[in-house]
């Protein structure tokens, strides 16, 4: 079949061979002719570089990263000293310390717990609960039960107010592990805590009624933010 095809179209092959070089000659010559027909200033613009080279000092990690300007100190303020100086309500100081301990415990749990879907899905909001959500929430409940100053507690995982201690003076509400949907990617997640006085409680209270609030950010190291009398620390 190949032989008969070549025999049938053999008389056309010289024309094809002679045409191809002509096509290439036309393509190669046209830019030259067009270039000669342009004015001198237009030709210089046409050959000018289309991009501007950036300064070399505009590149590198120093221009794309955020670096701290903190320097090493011989002495650092301790948590007890900061709370003693910046928070007048000493009973509230005790509750804040308890919450610090709770977030420290959650930090350790996140380092060892596997990130899997929880066997029992109990979120009233329809969110998929992970095992670490349940672990963090249970740790918060356990800590609140051990602190006599906490009267009531409530969690984002189970939004119902529970009585911890009848004579307690503070009410605590928390999201045990905010952002847990990205924890499997090893991205930072956190615990959000709001604390109210027992006079207002949680139901019907506003953010302005809070006596303090806290956020724990879990990453390569745990960072805590807390609102004290003089602002956020």
From TrEMBL:
GO biological process: fructose 1,6-bisphosphate metabolic process; fructose 6-phosphate metabolic process; fructose metabolic process; gluconeogenesis; sucrose biosynthetic process
GO molecular function: fructose 1,6-bisphosphate 1-phosphatase activity
CC annotations in GO: cytoplasm
Associated pathway: Carbohydrate biosynthesis
Top-level lineage group: Eukaryota
Chain ranges of the Fructose-1-6-bisphosphatase class I N-terminal domain: 82-232
Family matches, as InterPro entries: FBPase_class-1, FBPase_N, SBPase
Name of the featured protein: Fructose-1-6-bisphosphatase class I N-terminal domain-containing protein
Higher taxonomy: Eukaryota, Haptista, Haptophyta, Prymnesiophyceae, Coccolithales
